[in-house]
Fold this protein.
Amino acid sequence: MTTNWNIDRRHFLRGAVGALVPLPFLNVMENAVAKNIAGEVEAPLRFMTLFKPNGVHPPSWNINGGSEFDFRMSPLMAPFAKHQDDLIILDNMGDFGFSSHANSARRFLAGRCDNTKTATVDQFIADKIGGETPTRSLELTTEGLFTNQIGCSYISYDQKGDPIPRESDPQLIFDRLFRNPMSDPGQRKKMTSLLDRVSDDAKTLQRKTGREDNETLDEYFTVLRETEKRLETMGSAANASTDFSKLKRPAPAANLNEQVETMLDLIALAMWTDQTRCISYMLGNSNSRMVFDFLGVKEQHHYLSHFFRNFSRHNIDGLLKISLWHMEKFDYLLTRLKSYKDHNGSLLDHSIVLFGSGMGHSDNHTAQRIPVILAGKGGGHLKTGRYLRYSKNQDLSRLHLALIQRFGVDMQEYGGATDPLPGLDGGAIEEYRERPFQSWTKVEGKKMTVQGRLRMSDNLDEAKVFYMDVAGEDPVRIEIEFRDFHDFNFPYHVGTPIQLAGTVTEKNGQPVLTKISELKSVFGKSKPNTRNG
Amino acid sequence: MVRLLSITIFLSLVTLSFATNGSDFESEVRPFLEKHCLACHGGEKTKGDVDFSIIHSMNDAEANPDLWEAVSLVIKDGEMPPEDEPQPDEKSASAFLSWIDNEFFGEIVSKPGVFQPRRLSGPEYRNTMRSLFGFDLEVDIIEAEQTVTERSLVLKLLPTDPPGASGFINDTRVARLSTNLWDQYSYLSDRALNRFFSMTKVASLPEAEKLVRDFVPRALRRDVTEKQITYILENLEGKSGEALVGSLEEEFNALLMSPAFLYRGFLMETDPSAEQQQVDDFELAERLSYFLWEDMPDEELFSLAREGKLHHPKTIEAQIDRMLASEKSRTLAESFGYQWLLLDQIHHERNDPPYLHALRTQPIDFLHYIFTNDRPVVELIDSEVTYFNSLTANFYGSDRKKLEKFVKPKGIERMVIPLQKVVLEESRSERGAGILTMPGVLGMNEGPILRGTWMLRQILGEHLGEPPADIPPIEAAAKGQDLTFRERFEAHRADKTCALCHDKIDPLGFALEGYDKYGGVIGKNQSQSKKQPKTPEKIDTSGQLPGGESFTSFQELQQLLLTTQREKIVRNAVEQMMAYALCRKLTRSDRPTVDALTTQILEENGTWRDLICGIAQSVPFTECINPKLIQE
């Protein structure tokens, strides 16, 4: 990097005092720098992805109703609702059918789970923009490898479609970025004086020892000489390295929360100091088995995410606590990115952050209505503050193709998509529209047929209960077992008009549908199949 | 129990009792080689990588001592020359053999190795840093159930050490220091010191001095001179606060990056007047500690070394008992046992971490038990004790009922479950052959040939060459022929060259045909297998050992292993453990020790503890050749 703004920033960093994130003070300086060079240099565009494990609890996540500019954030979105103006909330992403955990992890950045012979979107972007920074890209995670289904542990894949090793340790990342003797003058100096010192000591030792020992010592001296040579080469290259010695290495994390927040701090810092411009980060494996004891939750996340099968109010509470925590971390990253001034705006303004998961309903593994949010104005490439609910299901690969093109990669096809997802820059989209339909009920003996809109119970105590809204009548209550719930892919149809037939019984004087014999979508597909884009 | 003094006396007798009486190389040996060997093993052909064309003189012969041991064996056993070649007459054969005996076996003197410093292996470095600092350098990562991760920052960053000539990774002479290693050591040292000084407050020079006086000798694993301490203290002179801590960090860093820390043995004191001598007490403390703990000595070993008491037999024995009782001795199973028996090869297609954990931990728990509970050496292949948990319990018939119930916490789907020690009754005959009948070990090698090869090499200690490269594939049965794999394989091995090894391998492997590829007993507990036939038409577990002893079942083979093959098995155990303890390949000079220990274990049904005590008091372990004298 040779741009003016960058050198100024680095000069400044040299004098910065102490902490890892000396924010307010830095921003003042940054403003001064930015003013001087405003309009001269274009800010670089960064790309970050944040992966949320185990899908979502749809009743708490989905936005129902609302339009592009007029919508209400859902309960799970509350933690980052304050960033609404910097977000594009995408809806109807994904496709019909079910998704395994491994497939959902692949889908997140490959667009489709069968797109396995090529790199993921972050890697295409890194190939394009990574050459200008000391570190091409970072692939980060929180959790160990799930070897049973190895695909659950990776979202970033290389050009051959093979998983890219992830790093989890914030201290290690920090040291690689800011404490590398090959690039950091402070560390280089330290290493040089160490080499002198141990060399003197070893010479004293050499005089005491015999022939065999000297062979081993020769090996030691050879390594000292080679290291010294490497340092000289690095030093004389006079590259753009900066003295980051005033930055403090983060302390070891006491719990998961600290570890993740430290990592998010580092992501922002790495971006701001322009050490790298492309980072992918998994908050957990796609089937995360982590236990969030610091939230008071003792059960595994994956177990809780199957909230229909393992239903209890206690479990739902636990699941929502975990999901809210994930949302808080997204907020944390956005807040951090906003706090760094970058050129004429904040770091977030010159970034694109992709947040989301690879599946929708966490118990049924529905591959539709996958949570996906874009944050940041992307240097003007994105028009934020909007909610885009597409008329039809959209493969994630269309979104990825659009992003790849935003970063200047010349690609016309990705993961089967040839037409980039429209609307990100404010252009028109075909919006989801309500179509008029009739609703009614029909009872013949034990059999009831009902047409209306399917919805989940608003009551969190009733995770297994659904309702059909019928005009002019009481809603029809549906209480079914997991088998029917899954076989008819109920979560897919939630929010849409369907015709449902089944066995009716009476409870508390109300008719209740218990066994489902048939489900027909009024406008869309009815029968679940195995296709899952 | 060991009678240490008797060993020592025995060893010295061996040393004295043979004298040189060699036939003449030119008149007896060279003609024999030319007549019977060179056609296949020299010149154009060098079958089995044996090449006599490089042996021109007695000097050449002496330079290849290992060769003659193998030559002697194949001639004695009638394996060579091959049957269809002219056979040597008895007189020239016995002259040739006695030349080998006299030159290479006759006058072995028990001698220690020439002293050579050795770099700490990855695990040794990790453990030493842990003991030195009191904390582990770990990777910040969340270990959820069923996920796998390398927790140790040291093992994550250091390149994996390859096994040395001894077969063990603590034999680091082949894994030289490299710039990559240097960078990683430097990083690890930096990181450890950073953390150490964030926890340890040093406010004044006297405090710093106290720290130096404690830290330096522990890091160097021996007492240091006042001069060395003063040298460091002078560099701290006049400093305080952050500058003082900074200087301390620099001093300690220089120490941790010095050869004296990274290698073992640089600082050993030797007596310049003697060639062969006892190693000094601190060196002995290190040898004991890295042998049994894979770690630096603890305070008790240090203080005994300081008092000069460690060479005393009673002290060594008491220390061994103390060390074996410590939790740290598990490394003996985890490193020595694991590497010896190639347990890293335990796998399962399900790749389910809790299940794999159960398969892999069983041999480790078992070895730890026999190593540290004074169990006889041969219990390695014959024990009523084993370890399993509910995930592997179905291999053990009604013995599974002896497991105490393990209750998973609510909301946890699957997790690693500790194994329990179980005394076998009903499944004793099928599962009572110690390491040999563990499901994970049986599943490690697929098919009778690989199973037999493993048993022959790892348990019986046979040195097999590599199979020739040009083996034709086993032919499929011709149409109308109803031949089992075994029958087809036997036709194949009618070839003399193949038979040389396969006569030894195959009986061992086919005896285990009653166990399926997951280690289940066919027809009984195969639930781990999906596609295997429940009852193959015929399972033939009979066979004959090269010595002529025949058997009909694995259980009968096990009895032969415990009787006619006992000596081989014990000798192999002795050799393996000694090579691990000495961190080097054994040489001819170690043979008297091996012989004596083997005899002693056989005569007294000796235990692993006896073996450990024997090794720890042997000449190769307690003495060294002064390298300075070699030079002159």
Summary: Chain A touches chain B through 59 residues (CB under 8 Å).
